């Protein structure tokens, strides 16, 4: 997986980490280590970021990775062992969060349609 890009309306809900966790789970057979470099990759949008905003968003993304047991290695490189028990525990919790988000989204769609 090279990158996860979400439409702006879906950002800030933890979906990047949820989707990455599922992807890692599916691809990790035989893998000894996983590396990532959290940060903003969607530079094509009309939204420009100053350094403070860039740092804030990157730190938030890094916290999401740390939540599934990625550990900072050097600079902005984080590593994860596929044998991590926290990865599987967080995967279960993230699946619950995804179900909650799906229900919220569906309710919003029904409310918007009935308005």
Give an overview of the whole structure.
The chain has 115 residues and is mainly α. The chain has one domain (8-114). It contains three helices and three strands, in the order αβαββα. The chain has helices at residues 15-27, 51-67, 85-114; strands at residues 34-36, 71-74, 77-80. It has a three-stranded antiparallel sheet with strand order 1-3-2, with helices on one face. A hairpin with a 2-residue loop joins β2 (71-74) and β3 (77-80). The longest helix has 30 residues, at 85-114. It is globular and about 50 Å long. The termini are far apart. The mean pLDDT is 83.
Which labels suit this protein?
3 helices; globular; 3 strands; 115 residues; mainly alpha
Mean pLDDT: 83
Structural class: mainly alpha
Widest sheet, order of strands: 1-3-2
Tell me the quaternary state: single chain
State the share of residues found in helices, binned by percent: 40-55%
Report the span from N to C terminus.
40 Å
Question: What's the Cα radius of gyration?
Answer: 16 Å
Note the run of SSEs as H and E. HEHEEH
* Count of domain modules: 1
**Low-pLDDT segments:** none
Gross geometry: globular
What's the total helix number?
3
- Beta strands, count: 3
Roughly what fraction of the amino acids lie in strands? 5-15%
Concise overview:
The protein has 115 residues and is mainly α. The protein has three helices and three strands. It has a three-stranded antiparallel beta sheet with strand order 1-3-2, covered by helices on one side.
List the helices and strands and how they pair.
Layout: H1 15-27, E1 34-36, H2 51-67, E2 71-74, E3 77-80, H3 85-114
Helix pairs in contact: 1-3
């Amino acid at each position: 997986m090279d990158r996860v890009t979400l439409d702006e309306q879906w950002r800030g809900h933890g979906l990047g980490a949820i989707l990455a966790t599922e992807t890692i789970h599916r691809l990790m057979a035989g893998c000894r280590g996983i590396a990532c470099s959290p940060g903003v990759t969607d530079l094509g949008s009309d939204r420009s970021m100053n350094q403070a905003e860039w740092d804030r968003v990157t730190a938030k993304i890094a916290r999401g990775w740390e939540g599934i047991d990625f550990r900072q290695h050097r600079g902005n490189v984080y590593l994860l062992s596929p044998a991590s028990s926290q990865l599987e525990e967080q995967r279960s919790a993230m699946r619950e969060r995804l179900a909650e988000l799906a229900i919220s989204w569906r309710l919003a769609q029904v409310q918007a349609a009935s308005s």
